[in-house]
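Lecture 7 notes: from sequence to structure.
We start with the chain below.
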Amino acid sequence: MTFKSLKEILKLTSVVFTVITIFQLITKQSLDNEKICELLALSLSFSLIKIVINKYIISKDSIFNPLLYIIVICLMIAASNYLFNWNMSLLLMLSTFIEVILIYICVRLINYQYEKIDVKKMNEILDRNRQNKNQQ
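Predicted structure tokens for the same chain:
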């Protein structure tokens, strides 16, 4: 695993964890240390799955990429409900799936802003390199 992949995974994990935690606070869910650790583990899992989907299953440009990712996340939440004994009702599960879609949209918007900043930095470096090349 390269440093670039690790950086991408950690950045995505932090964004996903932050957005999930904010949604938990907005919906007035109880957040104890155990729940926060579970959410962090889920966020890391979601990030790793996203990287695997992008690299090995479906390209980033495909329309099915976000759809597959959202389906996998919903299945993971359903599995986590039983694994972590969250005891979620069917109605709560459905509302959680709607939250997943909203969280996905928020994360995409935040990542878009990060990507814009990265592109701007790369363009500045290219401009400096061109100027240095022209001066020589």
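Points to note: The two ends are 38 Å apart (CA to CA). The chain has four helices and no strands.
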